[in-house]
C-alpha cells in the first residue's frame, strides 16, 4: 500500500467565510459538497467541514484522509498490520471510503477506487 496523498481535515464554524482564505492559501478553487449532514469544501490539501455538532462528530474524530490507489488492498494490508475497521468500505459522493483505527492510535479515512 502506498499513500498517494494526505488531506488535512479542519472543522470551521463558518464555511463560507473560511473558503476564500484556504483558496488563497492553496492556490486552488474549492469544490463544495455535502455528506451525512455536513457541509464540506475540498481546497487543495484541505478538507474543511461545518455543520451541527451531532453531524460533525461523525467526521471530526478522523485525523486525516489518506488517498490510496487500491482501497480494497489498502484496507486489507492495514488490517493485517493490526488496524481495526471503524467503518467498512462504502460509496461516497466522490469515490469510496473506509475508516480505520491504526494500531498505534490514529483514526484515518482511506479513500480510493
From TrEMBL:
Residues 2-113 form the VOC domain. It holds the Pfam family Glyoxalase_6. This is VOC family protein. The lineage of its organism: Bacteria, Bacillati, Actinomycetota, Actinomycetes, Kitasatosporales.
